Amino acid sequence: MNTNLTEKEIDDIVIAQADDExxxxxxxxxxxxxxxxxxxxxxxxxxxxxEILNGTPVFxxxxxxxxTLLEHLEKSISxxxxxxxxxxxxREQAIQVLEYFKTSLLQLxxxx
Length: 112
Fold this sequence. Notes:
This protein is mostly helical.
């Protein structure tokens, strides 16, 4: 059986098999991923609104996606160079975003 099913596909299979007594003899083996949503409150430095880049998380007060910072760091581009390339983002904002992700990862570790 395909182990890369979506949650909806899994639910559909379970519902379809619910009335079939023989269906329960063979288990459904699937990989379910834990999803940990990031909650962005109004006080956060990250905003996500449908009217700004179709809901892409951006630095508050800009249309610069937060993912741009992560992509720069992934390519070994320094924070200083990122800030030079995107002057609308303040150093404090970038640091707050990185701290936010750090805290989120620590919380995930506690849950696991």
